[in-house]
Design brief:
Order of helices and strands: HHHHHHHHHHHHHHHHHHHH
Shape: globular
Radius of gyration: 22 Å
Largest sheet: none
Helix content: over 70%
Strand content: under 5%
Number of helices: 20
Length: about 425
């Protein structure tokens, strides 16, 4: 007979596989979401496990699901119902996972269980990155006319994921290792020096891989996460005013870094940014040009439909029509999406959807600050940056990862509930 402790161990097993397989193939995520749903339904027959009242009373859970519900309403006035239904199907985890996580009881999970899930994130990312690196390295040694930097940018990604999606997954592993190395990860006990050295070595490996991958959004997210951790550490030793002064100096230093050619250190894809911004070309097919074209198109849609947007599923068609009308040849050829979740949601579901998205993205950051949880804080910051540089909630690699990680860290990996249990 199933008991509360056993059903929670089943959930834990699903979490382990989820965390390990993100970097490999998204087919697993659909199967795992189904298993999670079946386990959750089964758990209603177990006393003390699930109760819908926990979800109904959870303001945080409602903040997480409302953007999805607004998207459902967006089907009533869209011109692309089929595409809208498809997108809502892809993003179904945005609805079901907050309900599952907030309505379930996690009292029998221990610190070690959380730590093993975090280790699976790191192990999955490391094995996937090592596979890509070895595969590309063998091909490079076999003969290539491209420079090393250009070769790895083109040929490094050997998994069925975009560089941006893989970089997003890798950033979570980097954050875990970074917090472990700086004694800010509460899920492990005493750290032996050899393990901290290993964490630093893995951290350097991931950072080097990320720069070879040249995923701009992920690199920016990582840099900001490092900065947030630095400020977080400073709050333990200095007053708020001094920390604010350090933050201001950091921003000023970043501006000087960019002004005096510091982008050259980040790779060729970053050096093009100032040039493209200063001389926007509608025919260019560089990454930055395509993104700027998409921003112009998204803003145009918003100006014409500020209140309700164009409806769920219609943004892509509207963008393609904008590119055709305004002569954005490069963006039309590549069928470029918004590359900014906030602009896309505003164009899709209007000002109400935009405000709901802001609350949803900022919620875990606020929770991380309130409960003094650097893991949730840093992961949430990386997700904020990724939302500013990509449509992470309108594609499967982004939304599946975001929904699981945020719900897991808010509802399961909550340091305060383990303190209350005396762990």
């Amino acid at each position: 007979m199933l008991k509360l402790k056993k059903i929670q161990k089943v959930f834990w097993g699903i979490f382990l596989v989820y965390a390990f397989t993100f970097s490999w193939h998204l087919t697993f995520s659909s199967v795992l979401l189904l298993l999670m749903g079946i386990t959750w339904i089964t758990a209603f027959w177990i006393e003390g496990q699930n109760t819908f009242s926990n979800f109904y009373k959870s303001r945080n859970a409602w903040i997480l699901v409302i953007p999805y519900l607004i998207g459902v309403l967006g089907l009533t006035y869209t011109r692309s119902v089929d595409n809208g239904v498809f997108l809502l199907g892809v993003a179904f985890c945005m609805l079901i996972q907050p309900i599952i996580f907030s309505s379930s009881n996690w009292q029998h999970l221990e610190k070690k269980h959380i730590w093993y899930v975090l280790l699976c994130f790191v192990a999955g990312s490391f094995i996937a990155a090592l596979y890509c690196l070895i595969y590309a390295g063998v091909n490079y040694l076999g003969g290539s006319s491209l420079g090393l930097d250009e070769f790895y940018y083109i040929h490094l990604m050997k998994l069925p994921l975009s560089p941006g999606a893989f970089g997003n997954y890798m950033n979570v592993s980097i954050v875990i290792l970074l917090l472990y190395a700086t004694n800010e990860l509460v899920w492990v006990g005493k750290r032996e020096m050899k393990y901290r050295i290993l964490a630093i070595v893995l951290l350097l490996f991931f950072v080097c891989f990320l720069f070879l991958l040249q995923a701009k959004g992920s690199i920016v997210a990582l840099i900001i996460a490092f900065g947030v951790l630095f400020l977080y550490k400073m709050t333990k030793y200095f007053s708020k005013n001094i920390v604010l002064g350090i933050m201001a100096l950091s921003i000023f230093g970043g501006a000087l870094f960019i002004q005096f050619g510091g982008l050259n250190l980040l790779g060729s894809r970053f050096t093009e940014i100032p040039k493209v911004i200063n001389t926007i070309s509608k025919t260019s097919e560089t990454s930055t040009s395509l993104r700027l074209s998409a921003i112009h198109g998204s803003v145009d849609i918003i100006k014409r439909n500020p209140l309700l947007g164009v409806g769920t599923g219609a943004v892509k068609q509207e963008l393609e029509e904008f590119y055709e009308k305004e002569g954005y040849v490069g963006a039309k050829k590549h069928k470029t999406d918004s590359h900014n979740q906030f602009l896309r949601t505003f164009a899709k579901n209007g000002v109400v959807g935009f405000i709901a998205l802001i609350f949803m993205i900022l919620l875990p950051i606020v929770i991380g600050i309130k409960r003094n949880d650097p893991l949730l804080l840093l992961v949430s910051v990386t997700q904020l940056v990724m939302a500013l540089t990509g449509d992470i909630l309108d594609n499967q690699p982004g939304v599946v990862f975001h929904s699981f990680v945020i719900c897991f860290l808010i509802y399961v990996a909550n340091p305060k509930q383990f303190i209350a249990k005396g762990q």
